[in-house]
Specification:
Blueprint lengths: L1 H23 L28 H32 L5 H35 L14
Length: about 140
């Protein structure tokens, strides 16, 4: 156990000393106070990515809502095809009916969740359509 602890501490010490040695002797080493980080831009100088976290969250929630509605519509269509091609089989019709009912329940849950989010936003004082998280001062 002692050998393992000694080996681990010597490895960590060698990593630390190597990084400090290389950091002090790199040619063209720049002082950290002169480094400026700029957002990447496209060829037409339009910034890439999101300006703040609020834009990212808003776009992610919008994308998730759109995907959920598309999945609900696909489930409705799938249930309809199952019903059409059931051939009068009661078990297949019951399965198709269950799929359609589950898709409609999912659509209802999505609608209620969106409505609750709108109501909570109006009570708490933020606009759901323009959800902005304040950025820290520079």
């Amino acid at each position: 156990m002692r050998k393992l602890i000694l080996l681990g501490s010597s490895v960590l010490t060698s990593f630390y000393s190597a990084t400090t040695a290389f950091a002090n002797h790199v040619p063209g080493h720049v002082d950290n106070s002169s480094i400026q980080i700029q957002r990447p831009t496209r060829e037409n100088n339009q910034p890439i990515g999101f300006a703040n976290l609020g834009d990212f969250i808003q776009n992610t929630l919008t994308l998730l809502l759109i995907l959920a509605v598309v999945v609900v519509l696909l489930m409705l269509i799938w249930g309809a095809f199952e019903w059409i091609f059931s051939g009068g089989d009661k078990e297949a019709v019951g399965k198709a009916r269950g799929r359609i009912i589950n898709a409609l329940v999912g659509l209802g849950i999505l609608s209620v969740a969106f409505a609750l989010f709108q109501v909570a936003g109006s009570f708490l004082g933020f606009n759901v359509a323009n959800f902005v998280i304040p950025t820290p001062p520079r």
